[in-house]
Amino acid sequence: MFGKILLTIAVIAFIWFGFKYLGRLAELRRRDEADKVTPPRTPPGAAAGETETMVECRVCGTWQPGRTARSCGRSDCPY
Ligand SMILES: [Zn+2]
């Protein structure tokens, strides 16, 4: 009798954790699909830097990648 109750609890626990695991798997799959649908607009890595257009600062004359151009520190620097 007591063994039967234990077995029932074990089965319920097994099913409970099984559903939890399945739910997590489904959520991970949903996230993966969302990532595929909306790929990052700026691909990370060196490949992106190679295709970037370089811009020259009018004031200091240094060349920088257009998207990540930063001010050289001068007050009249356009970046
Ligand atoms: Zn500058």
Written description of the protein model:
- The chain is mainly alpha-helical and about 80 residues long.
- It folds into two domains: about 1-40; about 45-70, no CATH class.
- About 50% of the residues lie in helices and about 10% in strands.
- The protein is built from two helices and two strands.
- It has helices at about 1-35, 45-50, and strands spanning about 55, 65.
- Strands 1-2 form a two-stranded antiparallel sheet.
- A hairpin with a 6-residue loop joins strand 1 and strand 2 (about 65).
- The radius of gyration is 28 Å and the shape is rod-shaped.
- The relative contact order is 0.08.
- The mean pLDDT is about 80.
- The structure holds zinc ion.
- Zinc ion binds near residues 57 and 60.
List keywords for this structure.
79 residues, mainly alpha, 2 domains, 2 strands, rod-shaped, binds zinc ion
Question: What portion of residues belong to β-strands?
Answer: 5-15%
Mean pLDDT: 82
Q: What hetero molecules are bound to the protein chains?
A: zinc ion
How helical, in percent, are the residues? 40-55%
Q: How many domains, in number, for the residues?
A: 2
Structural class: mainly alpha
Q: Please outline the major beta sheet.
A: 2 strands, antiparallel
Strand order, main sheet: write it out.
1-2
**Number of E-state strands:** 2
Low-confidence stretches: none
| Order of H and E elements | HHEE
Shape, principal axes of CA atoms: rod-shaped
- Count of runs of 4 or more consecutive helical residues: 2
Distance between the termini: 79 Å
Rg, alpha carbons: 28 Å
